[in-house]
Specification:
It is built from 16 helices and eight strands. It is α/β, with parallel strands linked by helices. The protein folds into two domains: 175 residues, NAD(P)-binding Rossmann-like Domain (Rossmann fold); 143 residues, N-(1-d-carboxylethyl)-l-norvaline Dehydrogenase, domain 2 (Orthogonal Bundle), CATH 1.10.1040. Bound molecules: NADPH dihydro-nicotinamide-adenine-dinucleotide phosphate and 1,3-dihydroxyacetonephosphate. It comes from Lysobacter capsici AZ78.
Length: 348
């Protein structure tokens, strides 16, 4: 038996984080603080240089000190060389392209996780479907999701999220890298439900933002959150996700955070629209990715495919396209027929 003095600690897995926006930087900083050799890849040379040498991401997380051990580069091959685990954190519109770029450089043993929320724009495919197709069936895949504003994680504030994978050992290894003194990482095996929750909450956050921007009151906000959760549960049931996933961090948790927290870009978009601002001005002012704009279309495509009515999500889609005003959307929702809160077929 080894004495404590002679016992050797296994080296921590080396991690490549792809996407140097607010969430990629916050997750890379978290993992680096946990002692993992961590490289952050971004496409912007000035941004990467600032992270690597000044230990700050001035564009996306200004004023927050990043760990000195965190390396950053624009060289994708260098970032992936020797990686044991790859974490993709680019916006959904860049997800497939980033996977295609990383594929030839991925070390054969390195599994791929992502913290992107949304669907593949245009096809509406789930991101795990895209990853399976681009990387092949043998590569371990996982989705990282849950209520987590990048700024708070970068500041070291307590956070809980969840890692879902078909490969339990891989989910555990991703959770191990994320889990730490102020960060709880849970695991699960429902990639479908986890991805649906993370995508849909962005659309529903616009709805509550619009209501708050129109000063409709706290009752309206709570009603939208609850009926929004019901929309998530109904689509989830149709696509075959597990209901408990949507009642946990990946669904209810993220829905509450994004619908009520003003750090949410999707909520802020809704607030601006509810106050009468144009979508173009609102998106420009936010200056970061606002996933709901594309996700609303893909959610409604999924709903149509499965013959499900999602009135709140549909109203958000129509407002985002300028087909109706927020006031029209409100009128439509309030004039719907009265009915049971839980139709008998919701949970089978
Ligand atoms: N921020 C948050 O709190 C959270 C975000 N997420 C999700 O994480 C994902 C990323 O969002 P987030 O980091 O917040 O977004 P940001 O707007 O903060 O940053 C986006 C980043 O993606 C980069 N990017 C854009 N297009 C490409 C591309 N084609 N190839 C490579 N990089 C690209 C941008 O680079 P450049 O600067 O050069 O344009 C930038 O570094 C989204 O799906 C979001 O929903 C999930 C949980 C929390
Ligand atoms: O996904 C998030 C929190 O979990 C971030 O939400 P926003 O993209 O609306 O800022």
């Amino acid at each position: 038996m080894n004495s404590p003095a002679s016992a050797t600690t296994a080296p921590k897995p080396r991690i490549a984080v792809l996407g140097a926006g607010s969430w990629g930087t916050a997750l890379a900083a978290l993992i680096a603080r946990h002692g993992h050799p961590t490289v952050l890849w971004g496409r912007d040379a000035d941004g990467a240089a600032a992270i690597d040498t000044l230990h700050e991401n001035p564009r996306y997380l200004p004023g927050i000190a990043l760990p000195e051990s965190l390396r950053a580069t624009t060289d994708l091959a260098a970032a992936l060389k020797d990686a044991d685990l790859v974490l993709v954190v680019v916006p959904s519109h860049a997800f497939a392209e980033t996977l295609r770029q990383l594929a030839p450089h991925r070390p054969p043993h390195a599994g791929v996780a992502w913290a992107t929320k949304g669907f593949e724009p245009g096809s509406g495919r789930f991101l795990h479907e895209v990853a399976g197709e681009v990387l092949g069936a043998d590569v371990p895949l996982a989705v990282v999701t849950g209520p987590s504003f990048a700024k708070e994680v970068a500041q070291g504030l307590p956070t809980a999220l969840t890692v879902h994978s078909d490969d339990a050992a891989f989910a555990q290894s991703v959770a191990d890298a994320l889990h730490g003194p102020a960060f709880r990482a849970y695991t699960g095996d429902d990639m479908l439900g986890a991805e649906l929750g993370g995508a849909m909450k962005n659309v529903l956050a616009v709805a509550t933002g619009v209501a708050d921007g129109m000063q409709l009151g706290l009752n309206a906000r709570a009603g939208l959150i609850t009926r929004g959760l019901n929309e998530m549960l109904r689509l989830n049931q149709a696509i075959g996700g597990q209901p408990e996933t949507l009642m946990g961090l990946a669904g209810l948790g993220d829905l509450v955070l994004t619908c009520t927290g003003d750090l949410s870009r999707n909520r802020r978009l809704g607030l601006a629209l509810g106050r009468g601002q144009s979508i173009e001005d609102a998106v420009r002012e936010i200056g970061q990715v606002v996933e709901s704009v594309q996700t609303a279309d893909e959610v409604m495509r999924q709903a149509e495919r499965h013959g499900i009515e999602l009135p709140i999500s549909n109203a958000v889609r129509a407002v985002l396209h300028g087909e109706i005003t927020p006031a029209d959307g409100l009128r439509k929702l309030l004039s719907r027929e009265q009915k049971p809160e839980y139709p008998t077929d919701l949970f089978g």
